[in-house]
Amino acid sequence: MDHLGTLNAFVQAAETGSFIAAGRKIGLTGSAVGKGVARLEQRLGVRLFHRDTRNMTLTEEGRLFLDRCRRIFEEVEAAEMELTKTAVVPSGRLRISLPLGGMFLMSIIGDFIEAYPAIVLDLDFSDRLVDVIEEGFDVVVRTGASTDSGLMRRSFGRFTGRLVASPAYLARHGTPVTPADLLNHACLRQRSPGTGKLHDWAVRDAPAGLPETMSANTIAPLIELALRGGGITFLPPFAVDARIDDGSLVPLLANYVFQSGELAALWPTSRQLSPRIRAFVDFMAERLNLGE
User: Which pLDDT score is estimated for 130?
Assistant: First the structure.
């Protein structure tokens, strides 16, 4: 294998977790891929993989090198596009980090997979602050503003949250008419996974010291408990609108709730906006249609 071929063999081995599977993708034997990676490790003077009889995982040096190699191939892809000036069907692997609440975007993501079958999505769901470049993500979808100048950003729009409870809960405890009434209700609160602080509810005239009947650092348990009649919670519209539409949750104090969040895509400044990144970002922006 030439030098670029060896780098490609390493990338395929890292993404498939197997020399044999990598060999199948690039038309070589698993042994040839393994030998190529071994020569690469010898030349670099570092181990790229932890290997035993059952598993093969990247070392820290391997993860860093993988990100660099991906950038090399993206630059090659971008150069070919510029030279040929032909339409390119978006294809290849797209590694995306989404917040845990992003599980509720899966219907849109499912439509994207149908629209772009040549793109292989690698989804990572986490509310932690990921390092986009070091962890090798192509795109990160997050709520809130980014302070990282090394990232490009496209807003999908701002949104207004929903204050909701189940019909069963409201039948037992009554419906709040003013924000002050929330003091007499079970409040299911969300905590920041980074700081541990409770998120404020974007409700005008909300009293200080809202009850904390239960808290969680992600959305899913708050929705589940609200559906079971456990209390009132405040969540993004894309997480609860389907439940409001089917009647299992009821919106509350809509005249007091104000615009509270923004959903955006971020990707490394140094990375060419490849066709697959552009396709994903454009598709999400169009389908979410959150507005300004």
Answer: 76
What is the model's pTM? 0.61
42-56 residues labelled b (16+ CB within 10 A) or e (exposed):
eeeeeebbeeeeeeb
| Whether residues 187 and 199 fall in one domain | yes
Distance (Å, whole) CA 217 – CA 202: 17
With bands split at pLDDT 50, 70 and 90, how would you rate the model's confidence at 86? very low
| Per-residue confidence (pLDDT) for residue 149, from 0 to 100 | 56
Average pLDDT score, the chain: 86
The burial class, CB within 10 Å (0-12 / 13-18 / 19+), for 82 is exposed
Residue with tokens 């980074």: 194
What is the average pLDDT across 200-216?
92
Spatial contact of 186 and 230, defined as CB atoms under 8 Å apart:
yes
Average pLDDT over residues 235-259: 91
Task: Identify the burial level of 32 via C-beta atoms within 10 angstroms of its C-beta, where 0-12 means exposed, 13-18 middle and 19 or more buried.
Answer: middle
Tell me, yes or no, whether 142 and 103 share the same domain: yes
Structure tokens at 29: 């034997």
Domain range enclosing 271: 92-158+262-288
